[in-house]
Automatic annotation (TrEMBL):
<protein>
    <recommendedName>
        <fullName>SRPBCC family protein</fullName>
    </recommendedName>
</protein>
Length: 130
């Protein structure tokens, strides 16, 4: 997780359910000198050989209700389709205008980190086979 989300400095289980949906993890997120703590709830979970899906939700600083959906689908032996969908719902009326200025840069940077981490892991795996 640290490779793709470097600002998440803690991820501890609070409640784990048998089917994983409903599980809760306490995350710590560091932005500059400030550390925020919030509980992340697993809303959907699927783990098969062909498809993986994880949807989580949390409230950030009593200001935003956030959901993130990660989907991976096997295309070929060496190729995977990855979809990342995020919602960011403001909980305070005065926050809404600031979302107009939000850009896709944060999402693009995240997806680049995911791609780099996956390619790095693949190279390491291949080198162990040689």
């Amino acid at each position: 997780m640290q490779k793709i989300m470097p600002q998440v400095i803690g991820h501890e289980p609070v409640k784990i359910t048998q089917e994983l949906v409903g599980s809760v993890y306490r995350q710590k997120y560091k932005e500059g000198k400030r550390v925020q703590e919030y509980d992340v709830k697993t809303l959907e979970y699927l783990d098969t050989a062909e498809k993986k899906k994880l949807k989580v939700g949390f409230t950030l600083a009593s200001m935003f209700e956030i959901t993130a959906l990660y989907e991976l689908m096997k295309m070929e032996d060496n190729k995977t389709f990855f979809r990342y969908t995020i919602t960011n719902k403001p909980l305070k009326w005065f926050i809404k205008p600031f979302l107009i200025f939000e850009s896709e840069k944060v999402v693009v940077r995240f997806l680049e980190r995911v791609k780099q981490a996956a390619e790095s892991e693949r190279k390491q795996y291949i080198s162990t086979l040689e």
